[in-house]
Amino acid sequence: MRVDLFDFDLPDERIALRPAEPRDSARLLVVNPNNGANTQSDHQVRDLPSFLRPGDAMVFNDTKVIPAQLEGVRHRDGAPGQQVSATLHMRATPDRWKAFAKPGKRIKIGDRIQFGHGESVCILSALDAVVEEKGAGGEITLRFDLSGPALDEAIAAVGHVPLPPYIAAKRPEDERDRADYQTIYAREEGAVAAPTAGLHFTPSLFAALDAMGVERHFVTLHVGAGTFLPVKADDTEDHKMHFEIGYVDATTAAKLNAVKARGGRIICVGTTSLRLIESAAGDDGTIKPWSGATGIFITPGYRFKAVDLLMTNFHLPRSTLFMLVSAFAGLDTMRAAYTHAIETGYRFYSYGDGSLLYRKD
Q1: pLDDT tens digits, 189-218
Q2: Which residues make Cβ contacts (< 8 Å) with residue 310, sequence separation at least 6?
Q3: What span, in angstroms and rounded, lies between the C-alpha atoms of 131 and 126?
Q4: What's the pTM?
Q5: Which phi and psi angles does 290 have, rounded to 5°?
Q6: All residues at 6 or more sequence positions from 294 whose CB lies less than 8 Å from its CB, including other chains
Q7: Helix or strand run (H / E) with residue 259
Q8: DSSP conformation letters of 155-220
Q9: What is the pLDDT of residues 160-195, one digit of tens each?
């Protein structure tokens, strides 16, 4: 499909720079393409229970954002040091990370980069790495001098929260972002971007869902920085997705299959949990235990196998995420929904408002 089919104009003032307070006071646009002329209705996130049924199951991504934005100095024999920035996006081994580097063109294999000099890194004064591989689009593979938990601790000490570029361009990251850019149920460290639909949930909203008998299940997909990369191709056929690591355990798979068997619905909170569940599902809709790297690219024409509803934020134009929601609820339906959201003041992107989408029959 042509990528320009997924384009739209977003006024700059619609980009949210902070989350709603409290989180479940954010607006919620409910979109049901199967509801005749009444496809849209305006609500708040705290109204979510009224659209669910006892016996439904919500699926959350419990990944935890790490401070994956690193600033350092590149060193090369015979060359002066140069300031570089690296955003970690996928762990390859206990001591290796794939990263997007700036300025990427000047970095070569064998370069040593020293991150965090002058800061306390465990018992060291710096976190050092060697550029082991170099790919397209500024992607590199860094082999660190530390490994495993020691490396995790060092990254936490010198790294910064990798705010999305549309926020970082407007204000610097601050201490508040360490809490704001994290779901209340985050537990598995490894993401460099938050599963932002989950940012809307509060203990009181969880209590309301529990009281009505809605199940809560967790999967893990470590969101990578590739989620922010624009689609530069003119046709979706030519776009290459970046892979992300995740898993669905056997217990969760069995419980979700039981929900479907008794007529309940699966509601994914965020496109990350949806992509993971659809990666784990067979053609018959059965969800199997799954682990590995997924690069599933969902565009209109994709047949969804397991997911019935999707809660998600409002996404960038020409992005893979806007393509995904258009596949889920229909391109014309989503274009109309986004037009309504823009005209009525919904807040967009990571810290913005949410939507609840029914799958198009």
Answers
A1: 999 899 999 999 999 999 999 999 999 999
A2: 267, 268, 271, 274, 325, 328, 329, 356, 357, 359
A3: 16
A4: 0.90
A5: -150, 140
A6: 221, 243, 244, 246, 275, 276, 279
A7: helix 250-261
A8: HHHH-B----HHHHTTS---TTHHHHTS-TT--EEEESS--GGGGG--HHHHHHHHHTT-EEEEEE
A9: 988 888 999 999 989 899 999 999 999 999 998 999
